[in-house]
Specification:
Layout: H1 7-20, H2 23-29, E1 33-37, E2 41-46, H3 49-71, E3 76-81, H4 101-106, H5 116-120, H6 150-161, E4 169-173, H7 180-194, E5 199-203, H8 204-216, H9 220-228, E6 232-236, H10 245-260, E7 264-269, H11 281-287, E8 291-294, H12 300-314, H13 320-329, H14 334-351, H15 357-363, H16 365-369, H17 378-388, H18 393-397, H19 403-419, H20 424-430, H21 436-452, H22 455-473
Parallel strand pairs: 2-3, 4-7, 4-8, 5-6, 6-7
Antiparallel strand pairs: 1-2
Helix pairs in contact: 1-3, 6-7, 8-9, 12-13, 12-14, 17-19, 17-22, 19-21, 20-21
Bound molecules: adenosine-5'-diphosphate (ADP) and magnesium ion.
């Protein structure tokens, strides 16, 4: 990602700050214009040196902490001083609001992106029906923000409020059941509800099927019209396009048309674009052109918060201990969490009794025992790393110290340390009884290489993904 554009986040930050300070304080000290950004810095402009010193002393940390809330990143602000005297050109400020951006999304009348005809109420009776392709439950207010998704979720909301502007191309990637489709459709639902933009949601698979059907029926121009004249195109699970060359070609042209017309395009994918195979380079470069964000599996607190929210929206009662039990034992993804919850609710309704901890344990014992939920085994890590490096397992674990073996061995130890709960002593045992200091040394060696060679990061991510796939199958 070459260009970093945090302008939307900057504006939202100003919006939050404005809500927290008095009008006077805000108008006095926030004559700050967004200029540009790098990955970790945002450059802004202030009127003069004195102003810069004051603002920097008083508010820099505060603004940075707000930015962090929104982006999940440590961004630092660099103040520059305006040279020309046209100081009228202050920030293009948004309406006063003291709500967070997510609260605002629940009360759309506060949003500055609502077209006027909706605000005026002229069309009030004509409340929009549901979008024919979108799930009505996949909205921002039903999306729990946690450790794993604050950046993707806030970016998605920013995009929903300003489609086709700062991030005309947005790609969300991550494993199954982590919330990609929900987030993508939340963007669609939001835009559909708050504007008259034309929104299309389609899975990659259906996009291909429609394309093939159009070819057969000689209806290509209708197909092209449908996809090239939308305001927001959401295509889910683009890894499906691997090896589908004609569909890729068509998508490439669709992309270019929409991109040139400054429309909004959103994709999801089950892995980073760089790991896609059998996709043309030119299409890959289009995917990578925009903001690419990843969803990680949620931690315990987030899993608990998600379940708690699901229980509330389903309007059922379930003891907190039971929610805690599920959150603790199911860590794979949110879809599995939901499935466990649904099972317990169904059981409770069937027998007409509250679900106790005992019943929950009993009912979910098979789910909890499934290998997918239990700790990742070191053997699987070893097998995948050995296979990917064309080594035998015996060599990977054994005593040989040739370069060709030592590096993959260090990698395997490093990954074991990262994705399992095993101690360095345990890991050493699995690698032919090596000492725990050897394991620590290996991890350190990989960390150092990671610093020196950023490409290693994607090699490791790829291995982790393969390991998880293998683990899910076994
Ligand atoms: P993916 O597309 O990544 O496979 P989905 O978007 O289908 O995953 O999510 C699986 C289920 O988990 C859906 O029912 C979705 O509503 C739910 N879900 C995922 N993430 C969250 C979240 N952060 N808060 C609430 N529900 C979530
Ligand atoms: Mg999905």
């Amino acid at each position: 990602m070459a260009d970093w554009n945090y302008e939307i986040f900057w504006k939202e930050t100003m919006n939050l700050v404005r809500g927290e300070l008095s009008d006077q304080e805000f108008s006095m000290w926030f004559k700050i214009d967004y200029l540009r950004a790098t990955e970790n810095e945002i450059f802004v402009m202030v009127p003069h040196q004195f102003y810069r010193d004051q603002v920097s002393n008083r508010y820099k940390k505060y603004i940075e902490s707000k930015l962090k809330e929104l982006t999940g990143k440590d961004l630092s602000i660099v103040f520059e001083i305006k040279h020309s005297e046209s100081s009228q050109n202050v920030q293009n400020l948004v309406p006063v609001s003291n709500k967070s951006i997510f609260q605002q999304s629940e009360s759309p009348e506060n949003s500055r992106n609502i077209p006027n005809f909706i605000k005026t109420g002229v069309y009030e009776e004509k409340k929009k029906g549901l979008h024919y392709q979108l799930n009505k439950d996949y909205t921002f207010d039903k999306y729990v923000i946690g450790d794993n998704n604050s950046f993707p979720a806030n970016a998605a909301l920013a995009i929903a409020r300003n489609p086709g502007t700062s991030y005309p191309v947005f790609l969300i990637y991550g494993g199954v059941g982590l919330g990609k489709t929900h987030l993508m459709q939340a963007i669609g639902n939001y835009i559909y509800e708050n504007s008259d933009s034309k929104v299309i949601y389609i899975t990659a698979e259906n996009f291909m099927n429609e394309f093939i059907q159009a070819l057969k029926d000689d209806k290509m121009s209708a197909f092209k019209n449908k996809y090239r004249y939308v305001d927001v195109l959401l295509i889910d699970d683009i890894h499906f396009f691997e090896n589908k060359w004609e569909t890729q070609e068509e998508l490439f042209h669709t992309f270019n048309t929409l991109y040139d017309a400054k429309k909004q395009i959103v994709f999801t994918c089950d892995r980073p674009v760089s790991d896609l195979k059998k996709i043309t380079d030119r299409l890959k470069s289009r995917f990578e052109r925009g903001l690419n964000v990843d969803l990680q599996p949620p931690n315990y607190e987030t899993r608990y918060a998600i379940l708690k929210k699901k229980v509330e929206t389903k309007n059922v009662t379930l003891q907190d201990e039971v929610i805690a039990l599920i959150s603790k034992n199911i860590s794979s993804n949110i879809r599995d969490l939901e499935a466990a919850l649904t099972k317990l609710i169904a059981y409770g309704e069937l027998v007409g009794k509250p679900v106790t901890l005992e019943i929950a344990r009993q009912q979910l014992k098979d789910v909890f025992a499934s290998p997918k939920q239990s700790n990742m085994s070191i053997e699987i890590i070893q097998r995948v790393v050995a296979e990917e490096n064309k080594l035998s397992l015996t060599d990977l674990k054994g005593p040989k110290r040739t370069k060709k073996i030592v590096f993959p061995r260090q990698l395997a130890m490093y990954i074991a340390r990262e994705i399992t709960e095993y101690s360095t002593t345990d890991i050493g045992d699995y690698f032919g009884g090596r000492d725990h200091t050897t394991v620590m040394h290996s991890c350190k060696a990989i960390e150092e290489r990671l610093q020196a060679d950023p490409r290693l990061d994607s090699i490791i991510e790829n291995l982790k993904r393969l390991i998880k796939e293998y683990n899910a199958k076994s």
